[in-house]
Amino acid sequence: MADIAGSQLAAVAEGVAEQPPELSKRARKKLQKKEMRAARNAARKAADKERHRANVEQRKRERAEELAAAPSEEARQEILAARREARRQRVGHNTEQRAARAERLRRAVEGAGQKVVLDLEFAQLMRPNEIHSLTKQIMYCYAVNRRSANPAHLWLTGCNGEMATHLQKNCGYDRWSFIEKEAKSYLEAFEDRKENLVYLTADAETVLDDLDMSKIYIIGGLVDRNKWKGRTQEKAAAQGIQTAKLPIGNYLKLSSSQVLTVNQVFEILLKFVETRDWKTAFFDVIPQRKRGEVKAEAGKVSLDDDDAAEAGKVSLDDDDDAAEEAANGDHSKEDINMGFDEDADDDNDADEEEELEDEEIDVAKRQCVRPAGNEEAEEHSASVAEATPDVQQAEQATIE
Ligand SMILES: C[S@@+](CC[C@H](N)C(=O)[O-])C[C@H]1O[C@@H](n2cnc3c(N)ncnc32)[C@H](O)[C@@H]1O
After folding, report:
1. Which atom of ligand 1 is nearest to the CA of 327?
2. Interval 269-292 mean pLDDT
3. How far is the centre of ligand 1, averaged over its atoms, from the C-alpha of 124 (Å)?
4. Range name among 124-128, 197-201, 344-348 with the lowest pLDDT average
5. How much distance in Å is there from the Cα of 202 to the middle of ligand 1?
6. The pTM is what?
7. Is the pLDDT of residue 316 over 80?
8. Closest protein CA for atom 4 of ligand 1
9. Catalytic residue from among 119, 203, 224, 320
10. Residue 307 burial (C-beta neighbours within 10 Å; 0-12, 13-18, 19+)
11. Which residues form the pocket of ligand 1, taking CB atoms under 6 Å from any ligand atom?
12. Above 90 in pLDDT, residue 294?
């Protein structure tokens, strides 16, 4: 009897659960904003793609026109040879840059980099969209680090389960190099250096005034709009780990909370390593819309009228569009790509390769012979193909 009543109740509860929940006015407004933002992002992406396509076409046209305008076959061949040479130099330059970057990153993981951990043990506190946002923020950290003149030695700890799957599915992080991917918690990974761990949290009492190379700074991998306020402070306190907050209050008076996103905190650390100047780091990284007033002691910097007007309306509450974008880590494709530019370079190289081949085939058609210099073009592709894995292999080697 009790069972029947129980199952009836469950059925009723199920029925209720199936009903689409009535949205409050605030929730409707939020949903509307979210949809508008998604539409804006989609439109921006489509426009970016179209612009890129149009640029490639335009460049092809101009190059074809230049060839067509050449007064003689000899002049045409000279143009082609000059283009091959320019390209050879560009590829050489890119290869050098990649090698230099790989060297900087290698040095960072060998001890020269400030040690920073992204603690990924909070997946169970986040909704799928928050995990997705965190994934983007992690991608951004990885990208910014690769680009940095002074990269950090970066760890992802507690990188298992849903978080690892998400990272793998969305950004193929298996191929990431010069980053430590650790399924273990930071406590296990650094069990012999617990006294050097410093958990960064906006809820700490202690204010960070400098970075110490012997310390390992931990950033909480949490996108929560501060729903879980104090969570990282509590965690660190329970584990007997030091905590510290960024000295934002000494330089800026944010119009609301001083809780920043994971990537913002990481980028501030990188900027500080580079400049040893918190003010520069905060001004470079914290978006203007988030900055309220400049503190009196930083009086040298004055806000202009536009800034002041903006500062006046800045709020970081849940309905704030800008805050949501930042909290979601909404970065442009270029931002995200900036550290993955081996791929971007390869795309450009491929575009150029295609253009060169088109041109040469064109010339060959006219000449009715095998494309002149095609061996050279093949040689070029081979050198690009060789150069890229070399660097990647070198990068991979130090991490494995
Ligand atoms: C979006 S916040 C998460 C806030 C979360 N409620 C908490 O308990 O930390 C992401 C992480 O960035 C770091 N963080 C954000 N603002 C900070 C600040 N003002 N000072 C130090 N660390 C900060 C912390 O490590 C934090 O866990």
Report:
1. 1
2. 91
3. 17
4. 344-348
5. 5
6. 0.69
7. no
8. 226
9. 224
10. middle
11. 200-202, 219-220, 222, 224, 226, 228-232, 245-246, 248, 258-262, 265
12. no
| Cα–Cα distance for residue pair 24/389, rounded to 1 Å | 54
State the average pLDDT over residues 69-76: 94
Predicted pLDDT of residue 375: 35
Q: Using CA of residue 249, residue 254, residue 260, residue 265, what is the dihedral sign?
A: negative
**Strands ordered across the beta sheet of 197-200:** 180-182, 153-157, 115-119, 216-220, 197-200, 242-244
Q: Kindly report each contact of residues 273-278 with a partner whose C-beta sits within 8 Å and lies 24 or more positions away, as own/partner.
A: 273/114, 273/150, 273/152, 273/211, 274/148, 274/149, 274/150, 278/246, 278/247, 278/250, 278/251
Q: Whose CA is nearest to atom 27 of ligand 1?
A: 220
Could you confirm whether 224 is annotated as catalytic? Answer: yes
Residues 6+ apart with CB under 8 A from 74: none
Residue ID of nearest Cα to ligand 1 atom 18: 202
Dihedral-angle region of residue 294 (phi above 0 means left; psi in -120 to 50 means alpha; beta otherwise):
beta
Residue from 116, 201, 225, 231 to probe ligand 1 pocket by mutation (most atoms less than 8 Å from CB): 201
Residue 210's CB: how many other CB atoms inside 10 A?
Answer: 9
pLDDT band at 22 (very low <50, low <70, confident <90, very high): confident
Determine which residue's CA is closest to atom 26 belonging to ligand 1: 220
Q: Residue 290 — pLDDT band, cuts 50, 70, 90?
A: confident
